[in-house]
Design a protein that fits this description.
Order of helices and strands of chain B: EEEEEEEEEEE
Largest interface: A-B, 29 and 28 residues
Distance between the termini of chain A: 36 Å
Distance between the termini of chain B: 37 Å
Shape of chain B: globular
Structural class of chain B: mainly beta
Strand content of chain B: over 45%
Oligomer: heterodimer
Helix content of chain B: under 10%
Order of helices and strands of chain A: EEEEEEEEEEE
Radius of gyration of chain A: 13 Å
Number of helices of chain A: 0
């Protein structure tokens, strides 16, 4: 089944403790992206990647890092999480043209 | 300042009637627009899109209309079904691949049987 898989689905952590949210897609998509969803703000793009080793900042990149060493994986790294990063995170991937993103099921992160 | 706005946070409609969801944008560089549907505990799913060279795109019960001069797009669902109850997000980008999508805040639709 074609899908985007994120792990974990739920995560509670403490301020400052580094964490990684994994994302993997099995559709051979070139484009991948991370979003966070907050009430009233919709989904805001954190980082995106156009191909292996090619990444760029989205609208809210502060406090996040990403890497794209392989086409299928696009992990999101929070080096020193803070409470304002408590949110619902979505990973997504897409083909190159005229396709909407396919989203993962989301990771609900709470930073205390 | 939000570049894509959905001014109605919620919409309630009777089964079988038309649902109309609206979306406004401010960035004139946007040339590709998408609608996503989201159920609780799931990721958004792509619904329908429209390029700025068109003013209408139809897919089954879903039609998206684009008014570039007004910087406004709308999604029509006809007829509405209970399974359409979800949150709908409009999104815009400056390229067809939609790499850098800007989303609106979402509209929660409730279709009553």
């Amino acid at each position: 089944e074609a899908q985007v898989t994120q792990n974990p689905r739920y995560l509670i952590t403490v301020t400052g403790k580094k964490l990684t949210v994994t994302c993997s897609q099995n559709m051979n998509h070139e484009y991948m992206s991370w979003y966070r969803q907050d009430p009233g703000l919709g989904l805001r793009q954190i980082y995106y990647s156009m191909n292996v080793e090619v990444t760029d900042k989205g609208d809210v990149p502060e406090g996040y890092k990403v890497s794209r060493k392989e086409k299928r994986n696009f992990p999101l790294i929070l080096e020193s999480p803070s409470p304002n990063q408590t949110s619902l995170y979505f990973c997504a991937s897409s083909l190159t043209e005229n396709y909407g993103y396919t989203f993962g099921s989301g990771t609900r992160l709470t930073v205390v | 300042d939000q570049q894509v706005k959905q001014n109605s946070p919620s919409l309630s409609v009777q089964e079988g009637r038309i649902s109309i969801l609206n979306c406004d944008y401010t960035n004139s560089m946007f040339d590709y627009f998408l609608w996503y549907k989201k159920y609780p505990a799931e990721g958004p799913t792509f619904l329908i899109s429209i390029s700025s060279i068109k003013d209408k795109n139809e897919d089954g019960r879903f039609t998206v209309f684009l008014n570039k001069s007004a910087k406004h797009l709308s999604l029509h669902i006809v007829p509405s079904q209970p399974g359409d109850s979800a949150v709908y997000f409009c999104a815009a980008s400056g390229d067809a691949a939609g790499n850098k999508l800007t989303f609106g805040g979402g509209t929660r639709v409730l279709v009553k049987p």
